[in-house]
Write a structure and sequence with these properties.
Elements: H1 2-25, E1 46-47, E2 50-51, E3 56-58, H2 65-76, H3 91-103, E4 112-113, H4 114-123, H5 129-132, E5 138-139, E6 142-143, E7 152-157, E8 162-167, E9 170-178, E10 189-192, E11 195-201, E12 208-216, E13 219-223, H6 225-230, E14 240-242, H7 245-254, E15 260-264
Parallel strand pairs: 7-15, 13-14
Antiparallel strand pairs: 1-2, 3-4, 5-6, 7-8, 8-9, 9-14, 10-15, 11-12, 12-13
InterPro entries: LD-transpeptidase (IPR050979), LD_TPept_cat_dom (IPR005490), Peptidoglycan-bd-like (IPR002477), PGBD-like_sf (IPR036365), PGBDSf (IPR036366), Transpep_catalytic_dom (IPR038063)
Pathway: Cell wall biogenesis; peptidoglycan biosynthesis
Signal peptide: 1-20
Length: 266
């Protein structure tokens, strides 16, 4: 009997200590009201502990014509640059949407819900065909690639062997260029400038590549003293060679990482 009483007393002491620890840690609320109360701020109606956010119509990663229409409206408001009119809801579109939401004093969700779209539609006009698909620049009566119509672009035509520095459809500079040989062909397609190197030297070929603007792996637009000396009698190892040193110097200072590069045949 004595042993039973001692065991019960010890069990009570352990339980009491455990309860005290839980109360101290905040796991179990005490009867005393807290001196300070933490308030949770949520943008919309609350169900239990979870905020209910409005349904997204278009959000990060969305693609398609409707996204392009939203982007065109943001361009109208000068919240988005034309270069990002591309059918893809990415970081720049998200930032522009947040700026618009802030201007209308609505929650900065970063995605387009029905309320945001209604306010955006009220603040803009229905995008025209020309706003959605700006016409390609025309040089000497010939259209450039349609991808060169918006934003800052190094528009490179293999057929005419010209590089054109284009801003929102306006040609700012034109340079003679040459390309890789058959076995080291310059890749065609749409790219972006990944990085720049003013005094670059090729580790693979141990040759200087001044004012290099890399757009596809080791392929870059850069000055070539060989091109300046030999002209089209030679070829590159895949890069886009420029022979005008003054122009490539000026171009290098204008181009930023992330600007578009389009290599095509007209």
């Amino acid at each position: 009997m004595r042993a039973l009483i001692i065991r019960n007393v010890l069990a009570g002491l352990v339980a009491g200590a455990t309860l005290a620890a839980l109360v101290s840690a905040g796991t179990i609320a005490t009867a005393q009201p807290s001196a300070t109360t933490d308030l949770k701020t949520v943008p919309f109606e609350v169900s239990g502990e979870l905020p209910i956010y409005p349904k997204a119509l278009w959000t990060n990663g969305s693609t398609g014509t409707n996204v392009r229409k939203v982007e065109a409206r943001l361009v109208q408001l000068k919240l988005l640059e034309k270069r990002y009119l591309d059918n893809e809801y990415g970081t720049m579109t998200r930032n522009a949407v947040k700026k618009f939401q802030k201007s209308k004093d609505i929650p900065q969700l970063g995605y387009v819900d029905q309320n945001t779209f209604d306010k955006l539609a009220a603040a803009t006009h229905e995008p025209t065909q020309a706003e959605l698909y700006p016409p390609a620049p025309v040089v000497n009566g010939k259209k450039l690639d349609a991808r060169c119509a918006t934003g800052v672009v190094l528009c490179i035509d293999k057929s005419s062997r010209k590089l054109r520095y284009v801003i929102d459809g306006v040609v700012k500079m034109q340079l003679d260029v040459r390309f890789g040989a058959v076995k080291t062909a310059t890749r065609e397609g749409s790219f972006t400038v990944g990085w720049k190197s003013r005094n670059h030297v090729s580790k693979l070929y141990d040759s200087p590549m001044p004012y290099a603007m890399f757009f596809s792996g080791g392929q870059a637009v850069h000055y070539s003293s060989d091109f300046a000396a030999r002209g089209y009698n030679g070829a590159s190892h895949g890069c886009v060679n420029v022979r005008d040193l003054g122009k490539i110097q000026a171009l290098f200072d204008q181009i930023k990482v992330g600007d578009k590069v389009v290599v095509y045949r007209s």
